[in-house]
Design goal:
mainly alpha; two-stranded antiparallel sheet; single chain; 2 strands; Farnesyl Diphosphate Synthase
């Protein structure tokens, strides 16, 4: 079997670099047409919360999914940057004292620590809103119909029936531990929704038929579940210097997780099953899907 890991590693690195560059460009202090001004303090906080490294996995998945189906890599990059803005907003708000109350993110002070809570809230609000601006802007060279589909799908993935709703369930779980079905629902919303969107959005960018869109959506759903399971294992087994954030917080807060419910051995076996199912979904695309299949393996085996 061909070893695709070196090619995957290089593609992920290159994608992260290009995503970071475009993200830095769109988060400049210069006001856009129809904007009045961009407060420098706010823009600095937005950059602090988003231009801080990271794998940029969601934009990578979106772009690779689009290219797999014959879509524009450049358009997918811009949509991926929009997704990363929204993802970074969620991290900024997730770190706030009223939420997970974290001091570190990717090894750096969280935005509310580096600035203040009010600025962190506004930085998150601005990144969330800006995500939809980037998709709708003329520079994103897609048909209006596709932009509308992307805006709708992203709003659904991020809103009360997706990521934000999952965060609400996660907070509630600190007071009343959910059963297994509740944990799966919570994680599919809080973490899985944006990963599922990333893969489905690639199919939207490519203007693919419903069958391809559904297949990529299912792939995203599988790797979303795998991502959270790997995260829960890392929270149990890793340390803050490796993770770039506090470790062991799930157990300390009494949060319900599948690892806590079934144990480490079960979780590792389940992670392997999810990874193989995700890889199998892309089998019809043969060699064209090798990089995305390697991404599924990476998600299961990552160390941060």
């Amino acid at each position: 079997m061909t070893d695709t890991k070196p090619a995957f590693d290089e593609r992920l690195r290159q994608s992260a670099s290009e995503t970071e560059a475009l993200l830095a460009s769109v988060l400049s202090d210069a006001a856009l047409p129809d904007e009045i001004a961009r407060p420098a303090h706010l823009m600095a906080a937005m950059r602090h919360g988003s231009l801080n490294g990271g794998k940029r996995l969601r934009p990578f998945l979106l772009r690779e999914s689009a290219v797999l189906l014959g879509g524009s890599s450049d358009a997918a990059l811009r949509v991926g940057v929009a997704l990363e803005c929204l993802h970074c907003y969620s991290l900024i708000h997730d770190d706030l004292p009223a939420m997970d109350d974290d001091d570190l993110r990717r090894g750096q002070p969280t935005v509310h620590r580096a600035f203040d809570e009010a600025t962190a809230i506004l930085a998150g609000d601005s990144l969330l809103t800006y995500a939809f601006d980037i998709i709708a802007a003329p520079e994103t060279t897609l048909a209006d119909r596709l932009k509308t589909e992307l805006v709708l799908a992203l709003a659904r993935a991020a809103g009360p029936g997706g990521m934000a709703g999952g965060q609400a369930l996660d907070l509630a779980a600190e007071k009343s531990a959910p059963d297994e079905a509740g944990i799966v629902t919570l994680q599919a919303m809080k973490t899985g929704a944006l990963l599922r969107f990333a893969c489905e959005a690639g199919a939207i960018v490519a203007g693919s038929p419903p069958a391809d869109r559904e297949r990529l959506r299912l792939f995203g759903q599988k790797i979303g579940l795998a991502y959270q399971l790997a995260d829960d294992l890392l929270d149990l087994t890793s340390d803050a210097s490796t993770l770039g954030k506090a470790a062991g917080k799930d157990a300390a807060r009494g949060k319900g997780t599948l690892v806590g419910l079934h144990g480490r051995d079960w979780a590792e076996k389940r992670l392997e099953v999810l990874t193989n199912e995700a890889i199998g979904l892309l089998a019809p695309y043969r060699e064209k899907a090798l990089i995305l299949q390697e991404a599924a393996r990476f998600i299961a085996s990552r160390d941060n």
